[in-house]
Amino acid sequence: PQPAPETAGDDDLEDDFEELEPDLKGLVEYVARALVDKAEAVKVDEVQDGNTTVYELEVDEEDIGKVIGRQGRVVRGLRALVKAAATRKGTRVDLDVV
Length: 98
Hints:
Elements: H1 8-19, H2 24-35, E1 43-49, E2 52-58, H3 64-68, H4 73-89, E3 92-97
Parallel strand pairs: 2-3
Antiparallel strand pairs: 1-2
Helix pairs in contact: 2-4
């Protein structure tokens, strides 16, 4: 029988993973660009509001419905995604469509 492979490298992978901070602004921009027709019009601003970071998502007028979705389902899902990523980072965030 062959000896089990060494797992010393696993600790290094965990350290690298913990050092990765989620780029929340980039995440919002990436998902929004995938949803809309006019991707070049997508703009995300990061605004500090006390201890909360607010991401203001701006899209073309014709694409607002695509970002919001039926009864707000798409934007609610995007907010949940951003908040989940922020929880890993230990920060509070909010997402506004302007």
